[in-house]
Amino acid sequence: MEDGVAADAGTATPRSPPPPPSPSSATSVYVDLHNHKPNEPLKLESERWDIHSISGLAALRMLFQALEALVEVTGDIPPTPPVSRPTTPNTEDTRQLALRRLSSPEAAMSIGSPEAHPHEPLAVQQYAPDASVQNAAIARRFFSKKKPSFSLEQYLLRLHEHCPHSPAVYLAAASFCHRLCVAELKVPATNRTIHRLALASIRVSEKALEDNKWRQERMAKVGGVTKKSLNHLEIALLFLLEFKLLVNEEVLASRMFLLQQAARQGVATKGKLGDQFKLKLPLRKRMALPKS
């Protein structure tokens, strides 16, 4: 060999195999996957708090508790009328689709039919002189024709049971809801909007933050909507958020605090928040016919 070192393979002493690994003794690399975080929701007193200190269930409870309190403040607000009168859907196809959804054990909570027709356009530039009217037309996607027969708490707990998410997803959903319902007043938080808004916010948050995502069909079934309706809700949410989905730890912490604060402060002025929403489209002007 090089450097004048001789090697005799025949006289080499065989080495014994290493001992078997012991994960419990390797404290530097062992991760305890059963170290659960608290499931109790936090009542925040400041924008600065540790978002890593809670579990996904705790974050979900903070989300629906704040939204349900906000619903009590807002009251009921009717949606804007449709931009156009679409054709009547095929009722037989709709009935068969509903039966297929209810045949699944996960799909026990249908949130009913939406106000907006599937073919109703999102763009209303020909009738929209400003962005507020455009947003009002898009907000129709989140209105249900009737109030669901179950609470938002029951709805989201069942969603978490069959499609659980990380705390960051629920905190990001709270951030989106605060922007639309409180900061920018684009979608009112009412008994007829909050289920669809929460579902769309959680779904968009999941797609924005998570690598592993639940299948669209499963989320739609558990959420009590069709796959097509869920797609429409996501698109509507993205338009209203202006596709600004970037969040960080500071944003997640502060928006959840602000959502809770809006719900707490609004209790003292119940019913006044709804007066700030003006969901009306401008009247269509008749075109003057040329004189003969």
UniProtKB/TrEMBL annotation:
UniProt region (Disordered), positions on chain: 1-29, 75-94
Protein name as catalogued: Cyclin-domain-containing protein
Cited InterPro entries: Cyclin-like_sf, Cyclin_PHO80-like
Gene Ontology cellular-component terms listed: cyclin-dependent protein kinase holoenzyme complex; nucleus
GO molecular function, one term: protein kinase binding
